[in-house]
Design brief:
By secondary structure, this protein is an alpha/beta fold. Helix content is about 50%, strand content about 15%.
Amino acid sequence: MRHVVLEGLPATGKSEALDILSRFYPQQVAVLPEIVKQVAIRERIDVFRQRARLTKAILRELPHRREAIEEALARGALCLEESHLGVHLAYSLALGDRTFVSAYARMRDALPRPDLYLRLEAPIEVSLLRQRERGTPTFQVGRDVLEKMSAHLLAWHVENKSCLLPVDADRPASEVLADLELALDLTYTAPGPSLPPILDLLLLLGRPASGKSEFIDFMQKCPGERRAARHHIGRLRVVDDFPLLWEKFEEDDLWERLGHGRRYSRRADGNYVVSNDAIWPFLIARIGERAKRHPSTRGAPSRETVILEFSRGGESAYADALRGLPPDLLAQSAILYVSVTFEESLRRNLARYNAARANGILTHSVPDDEMIRTYARDDWPKLASGSQGFLDLDGLRVPYVTLQNEPESTDPDVLDRRYGDALGRLFALWQGNRH
């Protein structure tokens, strides 16, 4: 997600919210004001009485707005734009302004299509009250026009199949801002002159029960400053394909209950076994998409490390999975492969199986049938010939380290040394590869 438009009725807080986001996230976002209001104020246009003049001014401004959007995207910022031409079209239809309606066909493709429309939703009564309190009669819009505009705007979104996300704006400002930050995936980072460098994107690979979840748990409990200085890991953002796979299992249950048959799995002793191997590249594509939403993977300044966690098995499984990730993600990645033998993976998998929670996602337990069919063979030793180095993935050099995670240990000091050594070597390869 790189380009988002914020819309809503007048005085629902669009300008105020964007102003706050631009002040608190100056390195991550680029805010562009509402184009209609911008040209109206600059050229002193009465937005209700001088509609033809306003349309001409908007047409002149469109190339400059497109350039501003493209510049923001090119430097890796999240472009936040207030309102859009669809809103102005809805107002024009409500006001009976045929000038803009006729010109809209020339404008509709003049600007890049945003990834998401965020709508600040509030009742019309709230908009009218806030408009009166705001005290800007030049831009004040009455109930009749707002009702008609809202209907036209809804029709516009349906026609354009917009990705539209509503945010309730009729509540305390702090709650609205918190939801906007969540929807935009913004995390505040306090500036600091001597912060230790961290990995942007870590691919955490290994057989089931090899210790990937334990690695993440250790890092989450490690104090932030030590985690960054010792292990080169920032605040964690974990993208794991197991919840997505489990969701497909549950969908299969529904399909089966509806009489349509299962698509990806079959039942096995209270758990599930994958029956359609097409699910594996699908999951890789999904976690690749999710990883690209985070600022650190878009080149924006961030103190987060995105961790992509997954297991694969088969003669070319990891090679296929890695090549299924977007090249721009691979270019930023470092790979930590947590290595245990298949026998050890099988032993740990059985040990952590909790029969009372066999149907729960938290068990992360894999049935024996699946373990043997999918994970008995592993192409990592063939893909990565040494304990560390670079993988050549279609011309990209991706650094890796293989972490030997036997014997099993829960001693924090042992794990700190084990992880610290592996991540230190991996970070040196990764950093050297970027210069």
